[in-house]
Give the backbone structure.
Amino acid sequence: MRSITGRDTDPSAEPEQQLSAGESLALIERQQEEAQRGLGLNPALIYALWGAAYLLGFGAIFLTYPTAGAIRLPGVVAGVIIGVLFAAATVTSIVMGVRSGRGLRGPSRAAGAMYGWSWTLGFCTLAAVNMGVTRLGLPEDAVTLLWSGSSLLLVGVLYLAAGALFQDRFQYGLGVWMLVSSAGSVFAGVPGNFAIVSLAGGGGLLLAAGYFALHYPRLRAAA
Amino acid sequence: MSAIGSTPELLPERSHDLLPDLDPVIHAQARLRVTVALAALADGDQITFPRLQQLLEMSAGNLSTHLRKLEDAGYVQLTKTYQRRTPVTYVSLTRTGRRALEDYTAALRLVLTPPAEQPGG
């Protein structure tokens, strides 16, 4: 069967109904939202997952210390909570990142992929450096503070990079907040550092989730 | 301080029924949707045919017919390539296509703006 649609067909003779100007504008807006939702990541969901992982995971570790308060969690329970939450957030972020990039290529895809790999490369290197330093023999509290301080520092710098790359002042501001939390966590000492990572770090990420949910109302429909 | 010319350029006569100066290539529901979806990609980015089809929820035949018309107008570029021996078609909006959509949107806004609110009016 051959298509009888000729190339030189007068467009006005097409069976498709013509839209009025108002209908056309409405269609453009609707289609723009649909395309952005279908092509982009949902930042609100990713921030919410990581915010919950920080708040509950590091909150659980804080509660394993006797000085923390009334409730005291066994170390194993806290370890399982933080492990599960971080694994879930990591897998979800990677799956969403890969899915949103499927079937696309070009400069912005390359930039996005390089940014995604920055997290993996950064945290692998951070683990190697911290373990290498720890091997020389450090007091237990110093090891704890080294990890919480350096992790938040790296997170902060990567949000600064995201702010610069995607021209997003909000993410840049979040990066600054994470840097302040990083330094604060080290000076708070153990176990106060876990409270700072949990409340300031996790809280900041949850605020970001709320911001993106409000700022991009179209994403709420997708969630 | 800029002095605005005392005689603003005369606007074309507007008719809400005929929409005289609208680009006929884009002023059709399906092709308008295709163009807007492609314009959502960043400059220089390309999308595969199946992903575009999924995004627009159009049949493959319908989409390729409209893409051919957009390509004939110079609004869309189709790049055929191979990935692991499977043929893949990448679609992107050309600079002409992006400008055509901008002009079309501006024309719609002009048609819909009451005369009192028009610039210089």
About this structure: The radius of gyration of chain A is 24 Å. Residues 119 and 180 of chain A are 20 Å apart (CA to CA). Helices of chain A lie at 21-39, 43-62, 75-101, 107-135, 140-165, 169-188, 192-215, 217-222. Chain A has a mean pLDDT of 87.
